[in-house]
Task: structure prediction
Amino acid sequence: RQRAGGLPGDQAVAGRLAAQHFAERQFRQVALVGYRPSDPDADCHVMYEAFCRHADELGMAAHVHEYGRG
Result:
């Protein structure tokens, strides 16, 4: 399946890898920027869910910063 930017990939793996990257650097607060949780049809929704879930499992608080609204 084609993903954002036309690149194939596993968005859940990408989300978990991103969370792992920050955990290895001892971050405790992490965020996704530009994602809209209110749009579950967005290309990156699976990545968002995996990122947040894995961040929580690793003891980090995951946040979302939406921009471009309105």
Summary: The first strand starts at residue 29 and ends at 33. The beta strands are 29-33, 61-65.
